[in-house]
Amino acid sequence: MARLIEVADPADERLADYRDLRDVTLRRSIESEHGLFLAEGEKVVRRAVTAGYPVRSLLMAPRWVESLGDVLATTDAPCYVLDERLVEQVTGFHVHRGALASLHRTPLPSVDAVLQGARTVVVLEDIVDHTNVGAVLRTCAALGVDAVLLSPRCADPLYRRAVKVAMGAAFSVPWTRIPDWYDALVDLEQRGFTTVALTLAEDAVPLEEAVVGQERVALVLGTEGHGLSARWQRTAHRRAVIPMAAGVDSLNVGAAAAIACYVVTRRS
């Protein structure tokens, strides 16, 4: 059972894991140094613990202690209980879902392990917005994508904002980072995947046409703004586009991923 510890001072050093959560640069430094990540909200905290991530500590307002009793029963980590006003002082914003957990990161699986048995894969190149990465992971979980691969410069799926937007999908969808960006798509083709780059290239065909009849598909999406790099566009086996009304040439990558995943996972 977690140890319930009432805290009255927002400057208490035991709360360091939860401090200044809106300072992205500081959080990256803290989380990298200590090998941790944060889960926010009752559902996300429960999903992270259920997925097996070791708990460092929890922080919550008194009203959440009872509803998260099942989670508290699984760990002997400290649970810091604070008035909601003090929680806001510690974190730097109003935690309207009332509960946070600090958890240890676990080693990322290998590409081989993530792709084992996979039929549909989403590959992200340099998507740097945590909200977009979280949205893509949530879409992949909802539509039955088997795995997600990220280029080395993609935003962290375990950053608090990404985890929150994904509603914990990063705990259920197999994902990892690609160690070799340059030949990543070549490697996927050698593994038997048809790589399909979502792009506005002149030779792009409608997405439905690009994926029909393909047994294993790796759907490739690029960064916000510029889209896929020239290297990945050239090396993809096929280039595809989501047909749009005249005068509109692009969608937010999260929206594009949702439409594309719906099409790809229902290919015949």
Please provide a brief summary of the model.
The chain is α/β, with parallel strands linked by helices and 268 residues long. Helices cover 33% and strands 20% of the residues. Helix 7 links the parallel strand 7 and strand 8 (175-177).
Features:
268 residues, alpha/beta, 60s Ribosomal Protein L30, Chain: A, Alpha/beta knot, 2 domains, 7-stranded parallel beta sheet, 5-stranded mixed beta sheet
Quote the distance from N terminus to C terminus: 50 Å
Q: How large is the radius of gyration?
A: 20 Å
The CATH architecture classification of the largest domain is 3-Layer(aba) Sandwich
Strand content: 15-25%
Spatially, the strands of the biggest sheet line up as 8-7-6-11-9-12-10
Helix content: 25-40%
Low-confidence stretches: none
Q: Number of domains in the coordinates?
A: 2
Please give a structural write-up.
- This protein has about 270 residues and is α/β, with parallel strands linked by helices.
- It folds into two domains: about 5-105, 60s Ribosomal Protein L30, Chain: A, CATH 3.30.1330.30; about 110-265, Alpha/beta knot (3-Layer(aba) Sandwich), CATH 3.40.1280.10.
- About 35% of the residues lie in helices and about 20% in strands.
- It has eleven helices and twelve strands.
- The chain has helices at about 25-35, 40-50, 70, 85-90, 110-115, 130-145, 160-165, 185-190, 205-210, 230-235, 255-265, and strands at about 5, 35-40, 55-60, 80, 100-105, 120-125, 145-150, 175, 195-200, 205, 215-220, 240.
- The strands form two sheets. A seven-stranded parallel sheet has the order 8-7-6-11-9-12-10. Strands 1-4-3-5-2 form a five-stranded mixed sheet.
- Strand 3, helix 3 and strand 4 (about 80) form a beta-alpha-beta unit.
- Helix 6 (about 130-145) packs parallel to helix 7 (about 160-165) and helix 6 runs parallel beside helix 11.
- The protein is elongated.
- The mean pLDDT is about 95.
